[in-house]
Every structure is written in C-alpha cells, then in structure tokens.
Structure prediction request, 410 residues.
Amino acid sequence: MTSYTLTSPKLWRLLEGWPFREHVDAYIALMLAQHFSTRHTYHAVRAIGEFARWLTEDHGDSCDIDERTVSSFLAWRRQQTGYRHGSPTALVRFLGVLRAVGAISLGLPSADPRDLLLSAYQSFLEHGRGFMPKSSASYVWFARPFVQECWVKGKGLSSLSRADVIAYVERHAPRRGAATAKIMCCRLRSFLRYLKAEGIADDDLAASVPSIKGWTLTSLPTFLTPEQLDRVLAHCDRTTVAGRRDYAVLLLLARLGLRANEVATLKLDDIDWAAGVFEITGKGGRRATMPMPLDVGAAIADYLRHARPVCEHREVFLRVETPCVPFASYAPVSLLARRALIRAGVTGIAKRHAHVFRHTLATDMVRAGATLAEIGHVLRHQVDDATRVYAKVDLPRLRLLSQPWPGDAQ
Prediction:
C-alpha cells in the first residue's frame, strides 16, 4: 500500500534545486489549514514536483511561471502518460500562493481593448456609483456579449447605432425569460449611458433599448406551511457536521428572513453574544442589527462548538467539503435550502430556493395580524412596493373588500 508521507525523500527529490522550493512548505500549510487530507496534499505536491522537473529541464530556472506555462505542462503531460485528476487545480492554487508572497508577477493585463473597456466600466460602477463587486460583476456579465457582438474592428463601439441596439435585444430577449430579459435591458441601458458619458458613443443610445412587456405583482409569493417548515428543520441530521450547519442556516432564513447572501457573509465578529444581537450586511452594503432568537443562537453555538473546523476564517459558515473555506457567494446557501426542501419531500411550491423561507416569515406575520409597514421593517425593504405583494396572502382581509355578487348564487 502506498504511503502518503509528506516527508518522503522520493517526493522532495523532484523539487531539489528549484527556485520556488521554499514556497512549497507554505503551500502544504495552506492545504492542511483548509483540511485537505494528507493523501490529497501528497498528490498535489507531487504534481508541483513534476511541473518543477519539466520546467527545469525544458525552460531553465529563470522561467517566470504563469497559467500559460501550466497549460503547456499539462498539454505535454497529457501526451505522455496523462496526469492525475486534480493536478490542474493544484498547480493553479500554487500560483496563487506564489503571487500572494510576490514570488511571481501578478500577470499581464489583457491587451484586448474590449476587455479594457469592460474593466473600466466595472471600475466606474464600483468607484463612481458605489456598487458592490458582485453587483458590478452582474452588469459586466450582461455587457460582455453585447460588446463582443457589436464591436467593429478599428472603430470599436463608436459606430454603434440605434438599429444595432434594437437588433441585439431582438436577438437575445426571446431566448430568456421575461424577468431575465428585463434585467438584460436594464444592464444594457446602464452600459450605453456609460458609453455616452465617456464620449465613446456620440448618441444617447440608452433610450433605444426596447422595453420588455411584463407586469409586476402578478404572482403570489411562494411560502411553506407551518407543517412543511417543521418537516424541513426536522430532516436536518444534527449528528453530522453538515446537518448542524444546515440547521443553523435554515433557522436564520426562517426565523429572521435573512437573504442568502446575508447568511453567507455573516462573520464571527458580527455576533454580540452578551447582548443577543448580531449585525448583517444587506443590499448595497447597508448594515443592520438583528435580534438573536434563543433557538437560532443555540443552533449557531452548537455548530461552532461541535462542527465548524478550527481555522483562521472569520465567516461563521464554511464548506463541509475540502477546502473548508467560506461560501464564495449566495449560491451555496440557496443550494443548501433547495436540498433541504427536497430532502423533506416538500411539494406544491413553485420554486425551491432560500427566498422561500423569507416569504414564509412574511406570510406568517400577515396571518398573525402584522401590518405591511411592520413586515417591511423586519425584512428591511427600502421601498413599499416590495412589501405590498404580501397583501395577496391575507385572505381574511381581502374577503372584507369583496363586493356581493349582483345576481343569484353561481
């Protein structure tokens, strides 16, 4: 049986004389801190050793390594005997370690003028408009295909016309749902206004973006019944690491109506255990203080004491699988909620995502007699229209507004 000892002379022989040898120790410390197994770490270091041997024999010690060098090595390795699954990730992770300590350059910026334009646009959104990085990335994501399609060699977007904008929307809007198409048009108008402000486009083309037909407040919020919510929470196996974490996350969603991103970014420093409150970072970077219900606090404390791995990360919730790092975005929290709903066998709801629990809290408040103003305060809505949708689920009060049928009973 193969021994995966990190002190094996055979393993380190591949790295003898390599200029970046001293940084491999930091790489190993990083992997172990992220709770990778010794076997996984061994194979990652072996991939680095094979890369170092290939680099020394073919390029000499002075080669400045980057992603292109790694790609060349992997292509060569594939032609030989192939490489172990996980080697590309191991090498890219090692490049990150080298760049963190300044051992290699950060990489040359893209010379493509389209990439430079999009980068300048994102910088404008973040520094000129105060957008959060994730929000600005969404705007750039919708602007990129527009730039790729409408860019004219030698002219860029200076020759852009209203007909070009309308034709682009007509090509792409039918492929998307109504909500996504409306978001696409909104992002596109923002980008076109930026082009006008920067003098890249002569005309104000934002007004030429067609409006997508759609109606607001036409659907009912998707929510759970009290029995369904209890079943979802009961199906968390709290004897496991994942179960303890999922239970605490679901309680935050259900008891306080937090958004998925607010749970993902919650930090240990945000919790004031003595006062029984904690702070969250909401939309637009707005901070808010929330109460800590007893069952929520107990669930988080149970996760911190018995399930959360010891690490330097300050985020409360971490991945269960290695690497044990914080959630990169709201998506893992939404996926966690979706899996919990499926695991509990919840049916009869239109969508399965984290926002279902937020809708459930608001619906329960309506049925308990809370006003829309009180619900908007708890959910931290900035505009009243965001709360009015919950008036639809208040059936007893809606019946008081109905008029008697003028004819005979139907």
The two ends are 80 Å apart (CA to CA). The chain has a mean pLDDT of 85. The chain is about 55% helix and 5% strand. The beta strands are 271-272, 277-281, 287-291.
